[in-house]
Amino acid sequence: MSAGRCRWPVWAALLLNFPQLASAAPSVALIRDGALPEISGCARSQRADGRLWVHNDSGNPPVIDALDARGEVRERVRIDGAAALDWEDIAAFDWHGGAYLAIADSGDNFALRDSAAVLLVREPAPGERSARPERVITFRYPDGPRDVEALAVDAAAGQILLLEKRRPPATLYALDLDGPAMQTARPIARLADWWPEPPTPSEPIAMRRYRAAASAMDLSPDGRRLALLSNTHWAVFARRAGESWAAALARAPQAVGRLPRRQLPVHDTIFEALCWANDHELWISGERLPAPLLRVPVR
């Protein structure tokens, strides 16, 4: 075969320099609260050490819950003046000198929504039972409706990041954090196919469609690493100083790990929530009770 016709698939090129699967076992707590059957997003609290905010998927009230490291609910806060059409992710960030949460009402399984929204809420203080969005950014995509379940906030760059849920290559979009109330999301990067194993000769339909599709993401506290979650793996992409996400997401991830199942009480957990616990650990959870709360070391 001539050199001009010898084209390796993207996954093969990435595997040449792909890191080994992470082998360190995560610690596991269980979430048993009956009000949290469909955890779809999580974010590290900036007001209370060792706690994280979670929320349910669509069809549930507009409520966020603060959990401790054992999976126990410590705060339950209603978001007034907001509908939870299809909340899919939540991110914590510093903005204008305060601690904030961004909630992505962006789920769209059948690509039917004319617009989606991100709610910007000041993080509730311990003891508060309700909060109200300070801003709501409504947005559309330039290339038609998209199902998006992964959100992160890059406050230093003034951007809200949104990654479509599809088998890579997938598009990363950006909104202006301080921009107008109505925006068109801008495509800024393409996520390469980062799957850590060669495709099997015969894949189930769901795997063929959603392999490595992102159901959550979060930006590390130092702003240099973007963690992604699929239903089978987590992965961390790193960017160098001054580098764009377009360049960073074109490479294989810095670290990757397979999600555990056999040692969990519910073997068919749908993993949909991920956030940084600190600079070197991730929290991961998902739907169906008892839901695992994994604390995963990242090296």
**Beta-strand level of the residues, as a percent range?**
35-45%
What are the segments in which pLDDT stays under 50 over at least 5 consecutive residues? 1-17
How many DSSP-defined strands? 22
CATH topology: Neuraminidase
**Share in helix:** under 10%
What's the average pLDDT? 91
Q: Please report the distance between the alpha carbons of the first and last residues.
A: 41 Å
Count helical runs: 3
Order of helices and strands: HEEEEEEEEEEEEEEEHEEEHEEEE
Write out the strand line-up for the largest beta sheet, numbering strands in chain order.
2-3-4-5-9
CATH architecture: 6 Propeller
Describe the secondary structure blueprint for this structure.
Elements: H1 10-15, E1 27-31, E2 39-44, E3 52-56, E4 63-67, E5 73-79, E6 87-95, E7 98-105, E8 116-122, E9 130-131, E10 135-140, E11 148-154, E12 159-164, E13 170-176, E14 182-184, E15 186-191, H2 205-210, E16 216-219, E17 225-229, E18 233-238, H3 245-248, E19 255-258, E20 270-278, E21 281-287, E22 291-297
Parallel strand pairs: 5-9, 10-14
Antiparallel strand pairs: 1-22, 2-3, 3-4, 4-5, 6-7, 7-8, 8-10, 11-12, 12-13, 13-15, 16-17, 17-18, 18-19, 20-21, 21-22
Description:
It contains 3 helices and 22 strands. The longest helix has 6 residues, at 10-15. A 5-stranded mixed β-sheet has the order 2-3-4-5-9, with no helix packed on it. It has a 5-stranded mixed β-sheet with strand order 6-7-8-10-14, with no helix packed on it. It starts with 9 loop residues before the first helix and ends with a strand. With 299 residues, it is mainly beta. Helix content is 5%, strand content 44%. The chain has one domain: Neuraminidase.
